[in-house]
Amino acid sequence: MSVVLGDKEFFPSVGQIKYEGRDSDNPFAFKWYDENRVVAGKTMKEWLRFSGCYWHTFCGQGHDPFGPGPQRFEWNNPSDAKSRATAKMDAAFEFFTKMNLPYYCFHDVDLIDEEDSSVEEFGKKLDFITDYAKQKQDASGVKLLWGTSNLFTNPRYMNGAGTNPHFPTLARAGAQLKLAIDATIKLNGENYVFWGGREGYVSLLNTNMKQELDNLAAWLHTAKDYARKQGFTGNFFIEPKPMEPTKHQYDFDTATVAGFLNKYGLQDDFKVNIEVNHATLANHTFQHELQVAADNNLLGSIDANRGDYQNAWDTDQFPNNVNEAVEAMLVFVEAGGLQGGGVNFDAKTRRESTDMEDIFLGHIGGMDTFARGLIIADEILTKSRYKELRAQRYETFQSGKGKDFTEGKISLEELAEIGAAVGEPEQMSGKQELFENIVNQYI
To answer: Which of 68, 265, 353, 357 has its CA 20 to 30 A from that of 335?
Structure first.
């Protein structure tokens, strides 16, 4: 991939990021991510399908509830929305190509400022910037992994979008949703994501939960049907999150989403986009959410980041915990990877990291963490007794009466007779420490 520059080079101190191996002392080089290295029959590039995220990387400036951000981005300097949008896109594609990222993703208002525009005015703005994005994609070879619509930041969506109790507001959100789907299709986006930032409730006292869930299902069916009519063949993803900004969000976790999709007949078109930090906010591990998704044929895409274990908030830090990455990649590899999506970095540099090169360092570390986890997970699965030991815990279900039970051939009366004849069953150790030691051995 050649570097794509606009009229100005925004990151002149950083060149093309290349793989140099774990012994390299170059902070601007991959130590583990070698995109052409074959792991379990596929290249790393095919397994991970890394994607740069527009919002944190190019829109956020490190602000927090106590003050504005200290980060200064030159692409935000122009006074008019179109000039800011093109400058930001020049910076983005310079970054994507220097990082060798094959994909990117965005919210509609990340691309160009809405600025209280009417639907018609915002549609014209999106047409302008997506024309420019198409030129950038053609020049660079970078593809759109997925698009989505920000239906949670504007105050009009304080009570949600697809679950809003006020139909005119829901309809206004539908107009913005249509524009975002159109933009995604125009740019040959491979998927479309729904993150219900305010699709939930703050108090049940004023909430008709059944009405809101029914409306959300109708909202998703409407969007899906429209996109299919326009020729969109990709996946729709829902991104689970338990809370924040609402007290309780309807897409609480992957199991909740699976039940919702099956109840409302959406399971054939929708999968999940799992965020690491959202998993931990739901008091799950990342690998738990991956396993639930894989077991329900819903493993679509990943938002790669981490939270702070001492802070019950969505801190969106870059992933750096190799042990956690390995345990997650064990599930990932056994599931055969993702269905349509990729690994996108919904992560941001820390508020105090104000050098432009810090954006590169965060992504390099995150990509290396996932790559290293992938390599180690494959070695555990192919070289150790991990799978054999796990299977041994369930071997009594592989034959005889145990197998008959799993196949639905034993009634409760028969089960009771067998249980009475067994008497006190022998104690079986779970060997958790052994499994943990195997993981650490290969790290």
So the answer is: 265
What tokens were used for 230?
């326009």
Contact 328, 301 (CB under 8 A): no
Identity of the amino acid at 16: Q
Selection from 297, 302, 267 nearest residue 287 by Cα: 302
316 is in an annotated binding site: yes
Q: What is the pTM of this model?
A: 0.96
- How much is the pLDDT for 60? 86
Q: Write out the two tokens for 122.
A: 């915002």
**For residue 432, what are the domain limits?**
399-442
Q: Please give the average per-residue pLDDT across 212-221, as a whole number.
A: 98
Is 314 a known ligand-binding residue?
yes
Assess if residue 269 is contained within a domain.
Answer: yes
In this structure, what CATH number is given to the domain that contains residue 47? Answer: 3.20.20.150
Q: Is 6 within a domain?
A: no
Cβ–Cβ under 8 Å, residues 51 and 101: yes
305 and 335 in a single domain? The answer is yes
Residue 278 is labelled as binding a ligand: yes
Burial class (CB in 10 A: 0-12, 13-18, 19+), 162: buried
Question: Does 373 share its domain with 428?
Answer: no
Calpha distance 236→224 (Å, rounded): 8
Residues 316, 348 contacting (CB under 8 angstroms): yes
How far apart are alpha carbons 239 and 316 in whole angstroms? Answer: 15
Q: How far apart are CA 253 and CA 240, in angstroms?
A: 5
Residue 218: pLDDT over 90: yes
Q: Quick one: 254 and 293 in the same domain? A: yes
Contact 3, 99 (CB under 8 A): no
pLDDT band at 312 (very low <50, low <70, confident <90, very high): confident
Q: Is residue 60 part of a domain?
A: yes
Q: Which residues are catalytic?
A: 107, 110
Q: What three-state secondary structure class fits 9?
A: coil
Residue of 253, 128, 245 whose CA lies nearest to 197: 245
Any domain includes 139: yes
Q: How far apart are CA 210 and CA 191, in angstroms?
A: 28
Enter the tokens of residue 85: 């949008």
Collapse the DSSP code of 304 into the 3-class scheme (helix H, G, I; strand E, B; otherwise coil) and give the result: coil
251 is in an annotated binding site: no
Are 364 and 403 in the same domain? no
CA distance 203 to 209: 10
Q: Do residues 407 and 276 share a domain?
A: no
Confidence (pLDDT) at 78: 87
